[in-house]
Design goal:
CATH superfamily of the largest domain in chain B: P-loop containing nucleotide triphosphate hydrolases
Largest sheet of chain A: none
Radius of gyration of chain A: 20 Å
Radius of gyration of chain B: 19 Å
Structural class of chain A: mainly alpha
Order of helices and strands of chain B: EEEHEEHEHHHEHEHEEHHEEH
Shape of chain A: globular
CATH superfamily of chain A: ABC transporter involved in vitamin B12 uptake, BtuC
CATH class of chain A: Mainly Alpha
CATH architecture of the largest domain in chain B: 3-Layer(aba) Sandwich
Helix content of chain A: over 70%
CATH topology of the largest domain in chain B: Rossmann fold
Oligomer: heterodimer
CATH class of the largest domain in chain B: Alpha Beta
Distance between the termini of chain B: 49 Å
Structural class of chain B: alpha/beta
Order of helices and strands of chain A: HHHHHHHHHHHHH
Chain lengths: 328, 269
């Protein structure tokens, strides 16, 4: 009998590939599947369809896959490291920081819109660093409660900053809505190139921590018995999550919901809580969910494009609640 | 195959301070293969701290701790993992983890960073499960186990580490009578298989029944070591616990006769 774990992983892998292809073929202009393949593999190299696929849809598909995978992995990292089902990039302050960073540029420097991703990235990391300084330095450092409480406090601080900016310049708020609700943009490869190193480092650290995080599953003492250093693992995982979630926010705004829910969906669907399974499969799950949600967001009301954030929640929540009800 | 009696752990003059407060200030203890040493003492005497320090989960400020002749400060995490395994008092019970998963996590210090488990790891995992008598629970989720089953799984997780010594911190503290007896029989059977076991325990009757030797820790110092009946005299119990009590043994059964409501001892303390 094929195990549930294999079925779930295979389904998500298939959904990711199918979603990637669909995101290239579908949109305001429908391009036949065969043409998409020919464009991708070089036997067609000009024409309007070529432009649409190569310069608009391909970078956007890569963004969706990368951001989705990053948020899935960030959530799995944090939930594993903090042994807390509510952990997500919100909890280490990244979402609050990135939101503030973006709104700071959008509201105070509207002419410098190109700086939004960078500012979101920087402030996401600044917020996470503040959480780390409080949570991981000094005596009794690295305790779960301390890290989570520090995260909530810092997130509130940046949230208040964002609210203050919006209250001071209400007429400029609309420009920031798209970032706050989350959505992929069509800026070609530029933003992606800027933040790629952060994704790469974040993914590498996360991969190195898969097995150490798995050891934390049975508690700090068992992990320490096995020769691991629980606090270092926790810090490393939070660091990787901060990089991934900040980079994701820079590209696609605030989609932190993905980071919270995808690892849970994977656990519930596959019936396992092992990090060795949950983390890689959450990468697939996040990528599949975001690439499909983004494709639907472009297709449902074409040529009007819906923001992907709310749509993602609409798609994800019913599935999540269904799994939750079925869970033992 | 190393011989019974080979020294596994040697600790002397161990001292620990936490945030300026002295928790331990002079504990001496040895543990050899094929013996069970119980560490007893009142609440707050430093028993659990000693177990953690001996295992390297916490740093000692003073004294010497050696595993198989090597100082703990020179041993790396993975090397230490092959010398001793720690069985915590309160197991963490994560959702979605089966008994087989948990035991394979216990084996993971033997895996390479990118390599999974090898056939020899699989053998070690099933051997650990059969030694701890949890094979039949293999596919059960940890969340569905009873306290006694969970504690046997904890022992299996520790055995998968393949270390000759187990350090168990009050593994029976939360268990009922039947489960306590079951875990005790399991620990004894491991001693017969040449493991060395350091058992932190507060139940003196239980300590007397399972231990080859007992070390009493009081106010951060080891004050007596020897066979249970040599050490746990009414006089020592009265001095350390402030209770009039006597350890009784008959036909391999042990009991502690306690003057529960006897005020004299408490006042004398």
């Amino acid at each position: 009998m094929i195990s549930r774990r294999v079925i779930v992983a295979a389904f998500l892998a298939l959904a990711t590939v199918a979603g990637a292809v669909a995101s290239l073929a579908l949109g305001a202009v429908e391009i036949p599947f065969g043409d998409v393949i020919r464009i991708l593999f070089g036997s067609v190299d000009s024409g309007p369809d070529y432009e649409i696929v190569r310069t608009l849809r391909l970078p956007r598909m890569v963004e969706a896959l990368l951001v989705g995978a990053a948020l899935g992995v960030a959530g799995a990292c944090l939930q594993g490291a903090l042994s807390n089902p509510l952990a997500s990039p919100d909890v280490i302050g990244v979402t609050g920081g990135a939101g503030f960073g973006a709104m700071l540029v959008i509201i105070l420097l509207p002419a410098q819109a190109a700086l939004v991703p960078l500012s979101a990235l920087v402030f996401g990391l600044v917020a996470a660093t503040m959480v780390f300084l409080i949570g991981f330095v000094g005596e009794r450092a690295g305790g779960i409660g301390r890290v989570i409480l520090a995260g909530i406090a810092i997130a509130s601080l940046f949230g208040a900053g964002t609210a203050a900016l919006m209250a001071a310049f209400p007429e400029r708020v609309p420009a920031g809505i798209f970032f706050l609700v989350g959505g992929l943009t069509t800026t070609g490869w530029e933003t992606l190139q800027q933040v790629l190193p952060y994704f790469v480092v974040g993914f590498i650290v996360a991969i190195l921590l898969v097995r150490p995080l798995d050891r934390l599953t049975l508690g700090d003492e068992v992990a320490a018995s096995l020769g691991s250093k629980p606090r270092r693992i926790r810090f490393g995982a939070a660091f990787a999550a901060a990089l991934l979630a900040s980079a994701a926010a820079a590209v696609a705004g605030l989609l932190a919901f993905l980071g919270l829910v995808v690892p849970h969906m994977v656990r519930l669907a596959a019936g396992t809580g092992r990090t060795t399974y949950v983390m890689p499969v959450s990468a697939l799950g996040g990528a599949a969910l975001l690439v499909w949600a983004d494709t639907l967001a472009r297709v449902i009301a074409a040529p009007v494009e819906l923001p992907v954030g709310p749509l993602l929640v609409l798609l994800g929540v019913p599935v999540f609640l269904w799994l939750l009800r079925k869970a033992v | 195959m190393p011989l019974t009696g080979e020294t596994l752990l040697e600790a002397s003059g161990v001292g620990v301070e936490i945030a300026g407060t002295t928790i331990l200030e002079g504990v001496d203890l040895t543990l050899s293969r094929g013996e069970l040493v119980a560490v007893v003492g009142p609440n707050g005497a430093g028993k659990s701290t000693f177990a953690r320090v001996a295992c390297g989960l916490q740093k000692a400020d003073r004294g010497r701790i050696e595993w198989e002749g090597e100082s703990i400060s020179t041993l790396r995490g993975r090397e230490l993992a092959r010398l001793r395994a720690f069985v915590p008092q309160r197991p963490q019970v994560p959702a979605g983890v089966t008994v087989a998963d948990a035991v394979s996590i216990g084996r993971s210090s033997h895996f390479g960073p990118f390599r999974g488990s090898s056939p020899s790891d699989h053998d070690a995992i099933s051997e650990a499960m059969s030694r701890a008598r949890v094979e039949k629970l293999s596919d059960r989720l940890l969340t569905t186990l009873s306290g006694g089953e969970l504690q046997r799984v904890q022992v299996a997780v520790a055995l998968a580490q393949d270390a000759p010594a187990l350090v168990a911190d009050e593994p029976t503290a939360q268990l009922d009578l039947g489960a306590t007896a079951e875990v005790s029989r399991l620990l004894r059977s491991l001693v017969d298989q040449d493991f060395g076991i350091l058992l932190i325990v507060h139940d003196l009757a239980l300590a007397a029944a399972v231990a080859d030797r007992v070390t009493v820790i009081s106010d951060g110092r080891s004050i007596a070591t020897g066979t249970p009946f040599e050490v746990l005299t009414p006089q020592l119990i009265s001095e350390v616990w402030g209770v009039e009590a006597e350890l009784i043994s008959r036909d391999g059964r042990s009991a502690l006769h306690v003057g529960w409501l006897d005020r004299a001892a408490g006042e004398r303390r």
